[in-house]
Amino acid sequence: QVQLVESGGGLVQAGGSLRLSCAASGRTFRYYSMGWFRLAPGKEREFVAAISWSGDLTDYVDSVKGRFTISRDNAKNTVYLQMNSLTPEDTAVYYCAADPKRFGRSARAYDYWGQGTQVTVSS
Length: 123
What we know:
Helices cover 0% and strands 48% of the residues. It is mainly β.
């Protein structure tokens, strides 16, 4: 069992930056691929970024490539999402998720989810 707690969300102006953190409990965190997803009002849940258990592999949705960076610190059981050059289109609740089996974009493959953190970007 893994519990995930996101933090770092907030209100920021367009062009600004935020860094989201996701703290995980459990000794097996280091073996899980981790992902960030977001849910905006009136839209479906969207994959944002993923990182393999070792950190060697990362993947991003096209809309955030070059602006967002996913990273992890297995010693701290934490995964991060650095978000730069934010736009109002990035406004959403951001969720981190853990997948013990594979590295990928499918939300259905992720077994554990955090409660989400709100990111609001004003124009």
